[in-house]
Fold:
Amino acid sequence: MKEDCVTENRLARETSPYLLQHAHNPVDWYPWGEEAFARARAEDKPVLLSVGYSACHWCHVMERESFEDPEIAALMNRHFVCVKVDREERPDVDQIYMQAVQSMTGHGGWPMTVFLTPEGEPFYGGTYFPPVERHGLPGFPRLLQALAEAWANRRGEVTASARQIGEALTQADRLRSSTQLLTDEILFGAFQALSAQFDEREGGLGGAPKFPQPMIWEFVLRFWRRSKNARARQMVHTTLTMMARGGIYDQVGGGFHRYSVDAHWLVPHFEKMLYDNGQLASLYLHGWLAFGDRKCRRVTEETLDYLLREMTDPAGGFYSATDADSEGHEGKFFVWSREELERVLGAGDAEYAARYWGVDRGPNFEGESILYVADEPDPERIAPIRRMLYEARARRVPPARDDKVLAAWNGLACRALAEAGRALGRPDYVAAAVKNAEFVLGAMRVDGRLLRTWKGGQAKLKGYLEDYAMVAAALVGVYEATFDRRWLDEARGLADEMLRLFWDERLEGFYDTGADHERLIVRPRNLFDNAVPCGSSVAIETLLRLAILTGERRYEGAALEALRPMADLMARHASGFGRFLCALDFHLGPVVEIALVAPPGGNGLAPLAAEVFGRYLPNRVVAGLVAGDPKGAEGIPLLQNREAVGGKATAYVCRNYACELPVTDRESLARQLDAV
Structure:
């Protein structure tokens, strides 16, 4: 294969849509793996590692400018072994080398470009590099030549740099034990820190760019439930209201874009990510349960309907993302002109739509209009207008879709569907959650080992801590939505495997990669909740829930060992530990334990279940069975010796396995839950 004439490289054999996008680059790309590093060692060449993802705008720009350029590709092929990684498939590789880039440059991002020794040690890195020098960045060809020259003639400097960076990566793994106890003072301190960053007018934290940060608002909502702090309520409600009114929310098709580039939630970065929409659907559901605001319910249902309509594989998995760009322009699929509104809607409805969505105020994005709620709606009038615009938009060229299925992100969406289905009386959501759970456990598990990614019938890559934790959390949600014992047993099985593969007794915590994972230069351990919650925080919360449901105290013991060292960090840097704070709130309780028992035949639970699931009770576990089922209560202390009193559906409300008197009517159950 000639170094400057590659017609199809090794990425053509991959399943990741991002890697397949690069399969016809003239770059002789390798996927991450031993083959690439063996060649680097054999030819004594450094490795050029390029990391990105399919919905990344600047990743596409660097591909067009550099990776599709035959002269730049020839330089890359001549001097380096080139490796392309989808960060969503390989969060371990992404995390290790992003840490290295941040230590070298003080910032990070994607595309990420890192130069490694043949042993995988980083010695130089950055993010986007242009083809010619601009904006203070070196031109990519000049950088390639300079690093090739350094490798050939100044090897000692290169290896010294790699050694220094490697030592920094090893140090980053260490976390000192906290001297602070796990008390609600941490929650109060975290809330005060977040309150100081709150944008009073627009909601959210800080200024531009502005991210949804659903884990933060889940914590603040929990804090309001715990403290009845009026400001906490205001912070959450303002944020939910303003995000739903803004351009960050797809006013026509439902679902949220990644973030807004301004402080007003108006102009988004237009890609849509499964992890954002799964978490935000849950957050808006909780907003509906807490505040009774029908707009929150509408956003929940529109977001989940969007996922089921546009992001669901026929087999039951949920796709990962859609791009920001279509037809070579960012946001083109989503924006409108006044003329288009009139053409689709007719003059009368177009005038109303233009006023409602701010189009009458003039273009706000490259001569077109991003729709946002500028006027108070008439729900009966706007709904058919929205449908007509959706049908018209469907005839446009859509953004590309990343149709790989990731276990962890599917867990977030599955949990949202299960909980919303129960709370909103939507059996279609529960059915979709069940189908997804069946898909993940059936198609993405081989010999008992959960895998990370699936596409087109092929699953691969050993699952990470976040995959195990988020799927297990979803299965607990599916159990509570169905009371089908299978899902609790499956969740428990994943928890046991999670402890076996990722728990480290010496560390008293979790690693992100399993004990059976390939050897990397360090074993990664992420301890921050970023756009996606980190595996450790979800593992802690899930183990705490399972400890109550199963009575397995070893689950609680591991969870608290992992949570205690986070106390100082949670108190001082709240915005990076939203899911950890939620887990701490659950641990501090009080946790309401509810057993629902149906009479033989299984009928009559609906009113009691509606009372339980129609409330905002974040620190709650629910178990259920049909009276007389000998296996339904096995291994679930909360269900032991529970009967359907008088042959009627019965609820038992408990704390620490001490229960109120059983009740058989919704009003009595409501009084008990009010008292709790």
Observations:
- The chain is about 50% helix and 10% strand.
- Confidence is low (pLDDT under 50) at residues 1-6.
- The first helix runs from residue 17 to 21.
- The longest strand covers residues 449-455.
